[in-house]
Amino acid sequence: MDLCHVPAAREKGWYLALMAPNVKGPNYAWLDPSRLYCHPQGLQDCVADLLQPFQGDPIDMVAGIDAMGFILGAATAAALQKGFLAIRKAGHLCVQTLAQPYTDYSGREKVMEVRTDVISPGLRILLVDQWVETGGTMRAAIQLVERLGGVVAGVAAVCIEDSEGGRWIWEHYKCAHCVPPGLQPRFNRHQFGWD
Q1: How far is CA 91 from CA 42, 82, 88, 111, 112, in A?
Q2: Whole-model pTM above 0.90?
Q3: Which of 165, 54, 172, 77 is nearest to 128 (CA)?
Q4: Low-confidence residues of the chain, pLDDT below 70?
């Protein structure tokens, strides 16, 4: 899809066609959603779709997960006129942090951290990431927020896959994602196509 083209009918998820499949092999994610961030209307509509379920909900801050969640999270925070908190991979923050180990979508053991001087008890935080595949990364972010006394106001991502971890997140938190129900099975099987 042309990065300047805006379709006449902009149904939920129209911008998903802007994403690009993996052409580099198994060491990379199966799909790269970042191209949709280059399309001005696509990015705006993606953020609007993510925020729709949270209309009227109290949200004090948006937190994005390292690294691609920073782009979507910052755009979401700007749309809400709220502050943005970066939840980082360990070793990148030069301030006091709280750390949480987790297993990412590829099965690698990692650690993420968040600064301890921002989240106060009761602060309502919308967690944003680009993609939730197995749920391990998002669950670690949830644990960090809650260990500091914050409240997870919701979880938003371009896609939340129907994995064990994805289902756990849907069952325990208010969620939003951009994939229409008819396309969800394709995304769960990592199949890219619009026919």
Answers
A1: 33, 26, 8, 9, 8
A2: yes
A3: 77
A4: 1, 193-195
